[in-house]
Design goal:
By secondary structure, the protein is α/β, with parallel strands linked by helices. Helices cover 46% and strands 11% of the residues. Pfam families: Glyco_H_20C_C.
């Protein structure tokens, strides 16, 4: 794609776009003219043939308008007034996947075309912090030079890059090192009031005041539910966690003032106090001016909610914020499993954005969390991001993201939506509005000490057929998409679906044969297990290819261990079956134990397993032992 323009700012931005991001457009060149105007004037684009004229106040708005001109092919002109002043995405680079700079640059280009104004980088300890060599050690942390390069690149697109860090909780991987022990309250939380803690937090704030252009900083402080219950209590005695939080909050916000930064925090710890069980989404009265006065005057609050599904629910929670200055954080569900849950993401995006517009919220943050190993590729979330971009300017439905998926991703939105079929199984074929992850439960769940399969389906052959058909569909689709990276992702999903199909067949054969002590059937089950081990290795190879395209090498070892465990467990089970059939073992106790109905987290039907993390999926036994303080 060739863009021609005489404006130096736009010319530089478009040059970066062409270097970093493929565009799958029907045209090969466009002549672009831009008229800069006041920021409160309506945004406008007009197209005549291969000439596009833009009227806007910033580079990111120019790129957004260009994206509209290239995707709204039924129009020749459009005037736009944003309903929300700022739209940001948040990248999680703390759950093992630390994205490479080329991947981040492509992502930032996509954000600009979709109408985003900012990008938050969620970094718990994945950034180099001068003076603290073990902070982020072996985690793939971004060097100071990389941080500055990313900020420079974002600035060239008119995107504000904002550090989103942790200054209280969620610091388990940092706290593990010896030098951090005097600063430790619990395995996750820092010790408030400790001189070393204050020095560390000041170093963080001072660092980002020099590294990023943005004068905004997100301080985190969410989910610090064990605050004051660990070493703090042992050394300083019992103290109400709210008092501890407010002390730390005032201290840290004072440091932000010192370094000229505007702080914000996730607001859950302030609202959990209003409920007996520290629940976040309660029914408390709106925050009053008197209550607001106890918080630092320079502080902004971020209300996060990825769970409710109606506009009324979001409005109710926004009303609880009362007079607080609030940013809303929704999300595109890429966390927990291997595939994005777009149906829930779409539903929540529409409900939440309409609520924000009605309640006067002027900044929406779209989070892309990577909980439990970040197994979902970043490139799969494009439709969810596109929908938020459209909703910024008016009502929209998921189908309207299709032109953006084709332009920026090289495939129709239906290809991205098909990834959810890994979880829309025959027993639950409708939209996955509970974000269930049966594919992950089956992939990692042990076939001998079975926890999940009978709770997921009573018709195992039907489920196996579903995944076999899905593997064929992904293989066919991979050969039709235009983007090489998306092809790799679809081939990975093809391998995953093939593993799941074989896993169902092997488990079905194994347990039926064991009930009858049928050695012929057990030998057939062993053959399936050996085949499954090989298919798991194929999946592993495909996964490494996708990961290597998106992420640094650190963190991949976790997926290596998980997938290596799948193939290794198959072969170990075959070995034990061989010992039994040779008369060297009287029985296999793991197969003898009767199955009980699943009794972990359940879906709304009270029967189907809900979302679980790897450690709860792979075994009912102890995976590792950790102290709580």
């Amino acid at each position: 794609m060739i863009f021609t323009t005489h404006d130096p700012k736009l010319k530089a931005a478009l040059a970066e776009v062409c270097r970093q991001m493929p565009l799958y457009a029907s045209e090969t060149s466009l002549q672009v003219t831009v008229h800069w105007q006041e920021s409160d004037a309506p945004l406008c684009w007009q197209r005549t043939g291969d000439t596009v004229t833009l009227a806007c106040a910033s580079v990111h708005d120019a790129l957004m308008l260009l994206g509209r001109a290239m995707t709204q092919r039924d129009k020749t002109t459009e005037k736009l007034i944003p309903r929300v002043a700022e739209l940001a995405a948040m990248l999680d680079v703390s759950r093992n996947s630390v994205y490479t700079l080329p991947m981040l640059k492509r992502f930032l280009c996509q954000l600009a075309f979709l109408g985003y104004t900012a990008c938050y980088l969620y970094m718990e300890d994945t950034y180099e912090l001068p003076g603290y060599p073990y902070f982020g050690y072996r985690r793939g942390r971004y060097s100071v030079a990389e941080q500055k390069e990313l900020d420079d690149f974002a600035c060239s697109l008119g995107i504000e890059l904002i550090p989103c860090i942790q200054t209280l909780a969620h610091l388990r991987t940092a706290i593990r090192w010896q030098y951090m022990q005097p600063m430790r309250d619990t395995v996750d939380n820092l010790m408030v009031g400790e001189p070393g803690t204050l020095a560390l937090v000041e170093a963080m704030i001072a660092h980002f005041s020099k590294t990023f252009r943005s004068r905004r900083i997100h301080l985190g402080m969410d989910e610090a539910v064990g605050l004051g219950t660990g070493r703090y209590r042992l050394y300083k005695g019992w103290r109400d966690h709210r008092e501890i939080l407010l002390e730390h909050l005032n201290t840290v916000c004072g440091l932000c003032d010192k370094y000229g930064l505007q702080p914000m925090i996730w607001d859950d710890m302030l609202f959990r106090d209003h409920t007996p069980l520290m629940e976040y989404y309660g029914d408390s009265a709106p925050v009053t001016e008197e209550e607001k006065a106890q918080y630092p005057a320079n502080l902004r609050f971020v209300y996060w909610d990825y769970y409710h599904d109606t506009q009324e629910d979001y409005e109710k929670q926004l009303r609880r914020r009362g007079c607080l200055d609030v940013t809303f954080a929704g999300g595109v569900w890429k966390w927990g499993g291997w595939a994005p849950c777009l149906s829930k993401s779409f539903q929540d995006a529409i409900a939440a954005t309409e609520a924000c517009c009605r309640m006067g919220v002027q900044e929406i943050l779209v989070t892309l969390w990577g909980d439990d190993g970040d197994e979902t590729p970043l490139a799969t979330v494009l439709p969810g991001l596109a929908l938020y971009g459209l909703l910024r300017f008016g009502s929209a439905v998921p189908a309207q993201t299709d032109p953006y998926c084709r332009l920026l991703g090289g495939a129709p939105v239906s290809v991205y939506e098909s990834m959810e079929q890994l979880d829309r199984i025959p027993d639950r074929p409708d939209a996955n509005l509970e974000a269930l992850i049966p594919h992950k439960l089956l992939l990692y769940g042990d076939m001998a000490s079975e926890l999940f399969l009978p709770a997921i389906t009573q018709d195992v052959p039907r489920l196996a057929a579903h995944y076999q058909e899905l593997a064929a569909q992904y293989e066919k689709t991979a050969n039709t998409v235009g983007d090489e990276h998306l092809q790799q992702i679809l081939k990975m999903y093809q391998a995953l679906a093939a593993v799941l199909a074989l896993r169902c067949r092997a488990a079905d054969r194994l347990h039926k044969a064991w009930q009858k002590r049928d050695c012929h059937g057990l030998r057939a089950a062993c053959e399936l297990l050996e085949q499954l081990a090989r298919e798991a290795e194929t999946l592993h190879t495909a996964t490494v290819a996708v990961w290597s395209r998106e992420c640094k090498g650190q963190g991949l070892e976790v997926l290596d261990l998980r997938l290596g465990g799948v193939s290794g467990r198959c072969r170990a089970l075959c070995q034990r079956l061989a010992l039994y059939m040779a008369g060297k073992l009287d029985t296999l106790t793991e197969l003898d134990e009767p199955y009980l109905p699943y009794s972990g987290l359940l879906a709304e039907d009270g029967r189907t397993p809900a979302r679980e993390a790897y450690g709860e999926i792979v075994t009912a036994n102890t995976l590792c032992h950790q102290f709580s303080i």
